[in-house]
Amino acid sequence: MSKKIPVGILGATGIVGQRFVQMLEHHPWFEVAWLAASDRSEGKPYGEAARWRLKTPIPASVAKMTVAAATPDGAPHVIFAALDSGIAAELEPKFAEAGCVVVSNSSALRMQSDVPLVIPEVNAEHIKLIETQAWKKKSGGFVVTNPNCSAIGLVLALAPIDRAFGLETVMVVTMQAVSGAGYPGVASLDILGNVIPYIAKEEEKMEEETLKLLGRLTGDKIDMGSFKMSAQCNRVAVEDGHTESVTVKLTKKARAEEIIAAWNTFQSEPQKLGLPTAPVHPVSYVTAADRPQPRFDVDAGSGMTSTVGRLRPCSVFDWKFTVLSHNTIRGAAGAALLNAELLKAQGYLG
Ligand SMILES: NC(=O)c1ccc[n+]([C@@H]2O[C@H](COP(=O)([O-])OP(=O)(O)OC[C@H]3O[C@@H](n4cnc5c(N)ncnc54)[C@H](OP(=O)(O)O)[C@@H]3O)[C@@H](O)[C@H]2O)c1
Predict the structure, then answer these.
(1) Is ligand 1 within 6 A of the CB of residue 327?
(2) What is the C-alpha to C-alpha distance for residues 185 and 115, in angstroms, rounded to an integer?
């Protein structure tokens, strides 16, 4: 008998759901026991319902599983949720209400004041907000979220700088991969040979989530980060990997080698705890003048490392640099998996 914790995936057939299936295949602590999606997929074998888009084969045991209805009846205690935000706003509270631990990717509840928005290397202590949730008090269930796929790479790069030198202003321009829009996502005729300078609600999410993530837990609420933040988001014809051009103004003077050292030596709770999905280096600096690039750097740290490059002085603010992170691994399924591992390490999974 397996001693692994049975987990479910809500929205298992989508781009992020498939990443969950892939990343859970050989996971040492968790195993997939339940899959759910929309009415379109319900009742079908997973291998038929999901249009598998990943380069590794669909795990045989999962391909045979029948996709269940997206209701808590028969679902395991721990649920990874990869639902569109509209339906997530309706379903995630239902699962928490029914006593489930919901580890969510969606934006639906991220900014709710009692819901932790967590990157374990950055703000693991925010997990304690769980204790304030009405669901937790009533049924034991709760919701934990990870950030938007473009905020996460950025915040991993900002956190070490914020700790050492303080952030005063952050400006970011993103070039975001098509897989970030789910499947089938952006029509090929819209994106091939093109750049789309608009992603619905993305700039707002990046700005507010960054301030929550770099905010401080005071009592039972988060005091949001106090720096100024502005984001501009673009969709580009790249398969995986969000690239971001960042400019920062700092509260303390810093030298380039000090900033690079802050990135390269950044390690935190997941590395100390030895969580299975934690990369050795959450942030890594590349020295080549023309890197990072999605083609070469997106899989750094098995997709869990945020790669930074091109640090140089800025004549308007203090410093500018480029960040790249994998949007469906560090930006989605890997982020949620690391959150679940942190929950287990802190005794929240029973
Ligand atoms: N893609 C990324 O890089 C990324 C990164 C971070 C966060 N996210 C977030 O993660 C979530 C999923 O994104 P995705 O890219 O995987 O989207 P997707 O490819 O469009 O997949 C959506 C999933 O939701 C299911 N679903 C839709 N309507 C449903 C309903 N009424 N009841 C139950 N299930 C329903 C779909 O099932 P069917 O197949 O049966 O329709 C599918 O499994 C979104 O909230 C997204 O914003 C995505």
Answers:
(1) yes
(2) 28
Question: Would you place residue 350 in the very low, low, confident or very high pLDDT band (cuts 50, 70, 90)?
Answer: confident
- Give the mean pLDDT of the chain: 97
Mean pLDDT on 263-269 = 97
Q: Which amino acid is at 115?
A: V
Q: What mean pLDDT do residues 150-175 have?
A: 98
pLDDT value at 310 more than 80:
yes
Ligand 1, atom 33, lies closest to the CA of: 38
pTM of the model: 0.97
Give the burial class of 313: count Cβ atoms within 10 A of its Cβ; 0-12 exposed, 13-18 middle, 19 or more buried.
Answer: exposed
Single-letter code of the amino acid located at 65: M
Provide the pLDDT for residue 155: 98
Is the shortest distance between the CB of 22 and ligand 1 below 6 Å?
A: no
Q: How is the beta sheet containing 228-236 ordered, strand by strand?
A: 195-196, 228-236, 167-176, 242-250, 319-325, 306-313, 283-285
- Rounded CA-CA distance 141/93 in Å is 9
Q: Which of 14, 12, 334 is nearest to 185 (CA)?
A: 14
Q: Are 92 and 109 in contact (CB under 8 A)?
A: yes
How many CB atoms lie under 10 A from the CB of residue 312? 10
How many other C-beta atoms are found inside a 10 Å radius of the C-beta of residue 156? 26
Supply the residues annotated as catalytic. 149, 242
| 52 close to ligand 1 (CB < 6 Angstrom) | no
Distances (CA, A) of 205 to 169, 208, 259, 275: 17, 5, 26, 28
